[in-house]
């Protein structure tokens, strides 16, 4: 599972196996070590975040801050997704 970057103690990453067909572009966020039941954030066509779920129960203010960083680095995330998976689709 490729780690994209860290925001404080939170890891932003992809799962290496995102299903077939490949799910639309998104990242997982968790404090500490990546785990199966984490927060999932879709990346929209315009580089914004859309919360799919907050399974790791990140406090709202912290999650907003992490999403701000994700949005600021969305082009980097798109490039890393494309390099890793070879294709990109969007949830919206």
TrEMBL record:
InterPro entries, alphabetically? DUF4160
Protein name (Swiss-Prot/TrEMBL): DUF4160 domain-containing protein
């Amino acid at each position: 599972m490729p780690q994209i970057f860290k925001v404080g103690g939170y890891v932003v990453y992809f799962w290496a196996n995102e299903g077939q067909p490949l799910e639309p572009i998104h990242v997982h966020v968790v404090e500490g070590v990546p785990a199966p039941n984490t927060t999932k954030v879709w990346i929209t066509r315009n580089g914004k975040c859309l919360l799919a779920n907050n399974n790791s129960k990140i406090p709202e203010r912290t999650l907003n801050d992490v999403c701000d960083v994700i949005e600021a680095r969305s082009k980097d995330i798109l490039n890393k997704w494309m390099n890793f998976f070879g294709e990109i689709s969007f949830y919206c």
